[in-house]
């Protein structure tokens, strides 16, 4: 009997060789990295319509490796124009050449965004990476249902499968993995707290799934969040609409990390401004795994601060990492984009004695030291990238990841 598992890899290799042999070059392009951004994978994109009007199904992308052209995964997405996406896997290299050609694209595995009745789970190679919860999650029995919440990330898994997030901790039932409410907002002659749910002043809700995309380079969802005010006389009102995009990139082969992009586009939902007032915590928060305490986790920022002196300082990026179950180690590097409000952003990080054991909480808090007025008719954007990893992450790799995020390398195009 023929063993298909043994034959399949040869079949795929034959298809790739056939595609390369029949390829007609449209353009080549060169990318040069340097030692500041060649340690972590770099998601890239290019305006495909500027290079070709061929159908998506008639295009292939090759990386030049010596005297070979090797097919690599790419993904095309409409972004006002057709954008072609791929990931540079630097492995210490600095010079890369790619060829866009007319050819049948090679088959590659997709990273999936699997929808259930309550959530969407990003999965690659049968490993769960991240779960977005669109259904309302209620607190444990006998706890005030005001603590219910939807529209948050939990779990966030490491490549080895350990959870890095926590929800509904007894010390803070309103903590929900990775989530982003504002704490102190002036709206229509009132001051509203969307963070502390037990105040019963407001909340943030999932409203609808706008889009879901799957492909060999990334999977992505766009979800509409409503920042809802509970009116004192009863009733409620949506004060802010937020379109949150979560993009999870395909993990690189044999690498113990993967990349997540989170983008929030905010618009006033009424003719009234949404005035975020200065407060010590607000914005994109991360309540970490309960496995971590003051003896087994560490913090390092782009400015060289550690957990003992980070709170209230500013940074481009922050690494939070520590020991994990299974005698393992890992964490995430949180990167802020340069156009974010009040960049480099202030941070809120719990002290070493929080809750008596040093539980860990991190937040980029752009309104920690100043107000932010969101006016009707305008769009406000916050962009973050996470590099989720096992093993230890250091300053050089975090800076490399941030450079690739904030300042993607230039592309030199050579059209045929």
Short description:
The protein has 416 residues and is mainly beta.
Could you characterize what this model shows?
The chain is mainly beta. The protein contains 2 helices and 31 strands. It has an 8-stranded antiparallel beta sheet with strand order 17-18-19-20-30-26-25-23, covered by helices on one side. A hairpin with a 3-residue loop joins strand 8 and strand 9. The longest helix is centred in the N-terminal third of the chain and has 19 residues. The radius of gyration is 23 Å and the shape is globular.
Q: How much is the radius of gyration in Å?
A: 23 Å
The largest sheet, given as strand count, sense and whether it forms a barrel, is: 8 strands, antiparallel
Assign the structural class, choosing from mainly alpha, mainly beta, alpha/beta, alpha+beta, or little secondary structure.
Answer: mainly beta
| Unreliable runs | 8-16
Count of helical segments?
2
N-to-C CA distance = 48 Å
Mean residue pLDDT: 94
Globally, the shape reads globular
Quantity of strands, as a count: 31
For the biggest β-sheet, the strand order reads 17-18-19-20-30-26-25-23
Q: How much β-strand is present in the residues?
A: over 45%
Assembly annotation:
single chain
Instruction: State the helicity in percent bands.
Output: under 10%
């Amino acid at each position: 009997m023929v063993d298909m598992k043994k034959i399949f890899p040869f079949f795929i290799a034959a298809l790739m060789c056939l595609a390369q042999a029949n390829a007609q070059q449209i353009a080549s392009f060169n990318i040069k990295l340097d030692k500041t951004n060649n340690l972590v994978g770099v998601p890239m994109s290019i305006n495909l319509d500027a290079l070709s009007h061929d159908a998506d199904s008639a295009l292939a992308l090759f990386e030049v490796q010596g005297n070979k052209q090797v097919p690599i995964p790419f993904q095309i997405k409409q972004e006002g124009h057709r954008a072609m996406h791929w990931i540079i896997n630097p492995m210490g290299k600095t010079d890369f050449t790619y060829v866009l050609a007319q050819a049948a694209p090679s088959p590659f595995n997709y990273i999936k965004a699997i929808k259930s009745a309550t959530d969407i789970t990003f999965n690659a190679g049968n490993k769960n990476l991240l779960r977005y919860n669109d259904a309302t999650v209620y607190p444990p029995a006998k706890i005030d249902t005001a603590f219910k919440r939807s529209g948050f990330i939990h779990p966030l898994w490491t490549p080895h499968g350990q959870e890095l997030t926590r929800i509904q901790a007894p010390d803070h039932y309103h903590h929900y993995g990775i989530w982003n409410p504002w704490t102190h907002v002036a709206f229509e002659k009132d001051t509203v707290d969307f963070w502390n749910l037990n105040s019963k002043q407001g909340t943030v809700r999932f409203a609808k799934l706008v889009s879901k995309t799957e492909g060999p380079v990334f999977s992505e969802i766009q979800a509409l969040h409503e920042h809802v005010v509970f009116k004192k006389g009863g009733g409620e009102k949506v004060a802010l609409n937020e379109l949150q995009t979560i993009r999870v990139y395909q993990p690189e082969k044999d690498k113990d990390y993967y990349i997540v992009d989170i983008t929030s586009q905010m618009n006033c939902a009424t003719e009234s401004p949404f005035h975020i007032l200065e407060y010590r915590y607000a914005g994109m928060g991360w309540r970490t795994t309960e496995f971590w305490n003051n003896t087994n986790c560490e913090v390092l920022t782009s400015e060289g601060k550690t957990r003992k002196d980070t709170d209230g300082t500013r940074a481009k990026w922050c690494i939070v990492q520590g020991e994990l179950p299974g005698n393992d180690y890992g964490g995430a590097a949180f990167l802020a984009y340069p156009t974010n409000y009040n960049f480099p952003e202030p941070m809120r990080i719990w002290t070493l004695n929080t809750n008596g054991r040093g539980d860990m909480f991190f937040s980029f808090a752009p309104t920690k030291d100043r107000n932010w007025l969101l006016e009707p008719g305008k769009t406000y954007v916050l962009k973050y990238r996470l590099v989720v990893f096992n093993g230890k992450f250091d300053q050089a790799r975090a800076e490399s990841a941030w450079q690739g995020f904030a300042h993607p390398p230039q592309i030199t195009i050579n059209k045929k």
